[in-house]
Amino acid sequence: MSTAQAPPSKGRANLVLATLFLGTFVLGSAELLVVGVLNLVAADLRVSIPAAGTLVTAYAAGLAIGGPILTALAIRSDRRHVLVGSLLLFVVANVVAVLTPDYGSFLAARVGAGAFQGLFIAGAFAAGTAVVPPERRGRAMSVVFSGVAVSAALGVPLGTLVGQALGWRGSFVAIVVLSAVALIASLVVVPSVPSTGGGAGDQARYAFAPRVLAVLLLAVLVFGAVFSALTYIVPFLESVTGVSGALISAFLLAYGAATAIGSFAGGRFADANAARTLVVGATGALAALLALYLVGAAAFLAMLALAALGLFVGGTAPSLQYRVVSLAGPGGSLAQSLPASAANVGVALGSIAGGRAIETSTTSAAVLTGIVIAVIAAVAAWATGFLKPPVVDEEVNPSPERPPRPSSSLSP
């Protein structure tokens, strides 16, 4: 017979969240690191630049597809074991990437690393929300997501510098070392977090219910709108804004820093009213893209528009996670990995849509395409605001919007 455990102290909970932040920061840096050393990878492996670019797509596919599959397979496992296991496998995948001279093996390692990151993210959200009071779960989610946001702002540029100095393999060695540090920290800091709910089959009908799929579609639209424009922001800045060279990095840093700030702040808004936050975030992203299209020729205003875009997108991410898990009810454990998958699908589709627009028009067409998608996203955000979690037994099937009473897990 299990006995009830007292919830961890605030200091211990913060230490756990810091460890999870470290993990998502390292894994997020690894996801986009190839972008900064693409030419070095292509030259070393003797493949074309487009072929090297496929390594980014392979990672995203591994995360979007493999992440949910692995999460389903590990659905009954203690979240601590999931975190440790996914980090260990992530280290192995990146060691393969460092040692292999073969492009095919590197591609397979990237797919595996993406899948293990998806599994880690799901486990991190579950562990993070388990060690805080119910009214702080949105903020816990924002800390986990912020690791990815900060990696885009800082981790990738720093990794690129290491790659330029020590070669692309040197930058991946750094990822292996930092991943090992995150693994040790997880072993030492993260407590046992038993799985809640039933098996994958029992949870699937809740995790893939129409109300959950509707919010996942919203995630696809939001990230599709943003990356329709953002994927081609460099040619836009060069041809429309009139900036080039090192100055472009300042614009990208403004977006990345704003995304990180928004993701930290977004947790409080998720706790207050996640549905309303999604409406504000989607509408704000639409306004930022519209401003970029209309005043993009003015450098200062273009930078402000990019910063606003990052702020709104970062601010919506915790609420997307919160809404998906709460609307999944008893399927929340399985649903933890789905928002990241939906976001990656949005990134891929948005990039394709923006690219097609540029092929038939000017570079501004990518931003205009993002605006069109963002209009649909804003309407979808308003519509999904009326969705409610399923009515279930709160003692057996806890969800973020209907917190359980103290039980044998760490959730208070």
Features:
single chain, mainly alpha, Growth Hormone, Chain: A, 2 domains
Tell me what you see in this structure:
The chain is mainly α and 412 residues long. It has 2 domains: 1-195, Up-down Bundle (Growth Hormone, Chain: A), CATH 1.20.1250.20; 198-392, MFS general substrate transporter like domains (Growth Hormone, Chain: A), CATH 1.20.1250.20. 79% of the residues lie in helices and 0% in strands. It contains 15 helices and no strands. It has helices spanning 10-36, 38-45, 49-73, 79-99, 103-130, 137-166, 168-189, 200-207, 210-230, 233-241, 246-295, 299-328, 332-335, 338-360, 364-384. α3 crosses α5. The longest helix is centred in the middle third of the chain and has 50 residues, at 246-295. It is globular, with a radius of gyration of 21 Å. The relative contact order is 0.14. Mean pLDDT is 85; it is low at 394-412.
Give me a quick take on this structure.
With 412 residues, this protein is an all-alpha fold. The protein is built from 15 helices and no strands. The C terminus is likely disordered.
SSE layout and pairings?
Blueprint (H helix, E strand, L loop, with lengths): L9 H27 L1 H8 L3 H25 L5 H21 L3 H28 L6 H30 L1 H22 L10 H8 L2 H21 L2 H9 L4 H50 L3 H30 L3 H4 L2 H23 L3 H21 L28
Helix pairs in contact: 1-3, 1-5, 1-6, 1-7, 2-3, 3-5, 3-14, 4-5, 4-7, 5-6, 6-7, 6-11, 6-12, 9-11, 9-12, 9-14, 9-15, 11-12, 11-15, 14-15
Protein name: DHA1 family inner membrane transport protein
GO molecular function, one term: transmembrane transporter activity
Main location: membrane
